[in-house]
Amino acid sequence: MRTLIPERIAVPYLNVEVSRFFLLCVNALGVLVGLNFYLPQMSAHAAFLWPLLIDSPLALCWMTASLLTLWGVGRHDYPSTPFLDTLTTVAFASMVKYGLWTAFTLNYFVGAYYPHVWDYWGILFTHLVMVGEAFLLPYYGRTSKLALGVTAGWFLVNDVADYAFGLHPHLKVATTGPLPWVTPLLSLGALALAWYCLDGGRDDLRTT
């Protein structure tokens, strides 16, 4: 198991249902705040395109869905199935990718966002928390070739939609700068990290 979150911090959210419920509520609030940001874009596009628009809120939805599957199972006995492995992988990779994408974008175009308290610091903090939260998943989840392939396919479709068809998040600047090539690199990096971290670490926790 490879994760950035110490076990003493992860255990309450993985083993204690009250703490996990609190985390799920925070994630749900994050989804609502994120959807509010995307409302202008969503209203301008057909509903079937919305999953390609709402990058960070959708990542939080994947993460929340994965945490919900712990109920009644627990991390020690969490099963490995094609569906659960794919859910874990897409959740981990999406949280990492879009958390880092936002941090990079805010700082590359820092003049357009800083020093506004929410537009810079609030968004930066919440998206870095997303990256950190992803590292709860190695405590119980696994990946597989199928899961990595599905996630890679989803990222490819999303990246093409963003920069070939203009479905990337609205920016406060008139240019996308290096984002058309930085984003695919983040996709590859997030996939590589998912492969590296999601090795079924829960098996090692039976003795803890």
Describe it for me?
The chain is mainly α and 208 residues long. It has one domain. 68% of the residues lie in helices and 0% in strands. The chain contains nine helices and no strands. Helix 4 packs antiparallel against helix 5 and helix 5 packs antiparallel against helix 7. The chain is globular and about 50 Å long.
Tags for this model:
single chain, 208 residues, mainly alpha, 9 helices, 68% helix, disordered C terminus
Q: Number of DSSP strands?
A: 0
Radius of gyration (Å): 17 Å
Give the proportion of residues in helices: 55-70%
In terms of quaternary structure, what is this?
single chain
Q: How much strand content do the residues show?
A: under 5%
Number of domains: 1
H/E topology pattern: HHHHHHHHH
The residue ranges in which pLDDT falls below 50 over 5 or more consecutive positions are 202-208
- Determine the number of helices (DSSP H or I, runs of at least 4 residues): 9
Structural classification: mainly alpha
What is this structure's SSE topology?
Layout (H helix, E strand, L loop, with lengths): L6 H9 L1 H27 L6 H4 L1 H14 L13 H27 L1 H4 L3 H18 L10 H20 L14 H19 L11
Helix pairs in contact: 1-2, 2-4, 4-5, 5-7, 5-8, 5-9, 8-9
Short structural description:
68% of the residues lie in helices and 0% in strands. The protein has helices spanning 7-15, 17-43, 50-53, 55-68, 82-108, 110-113, 117-134, 145-164, 179-197.
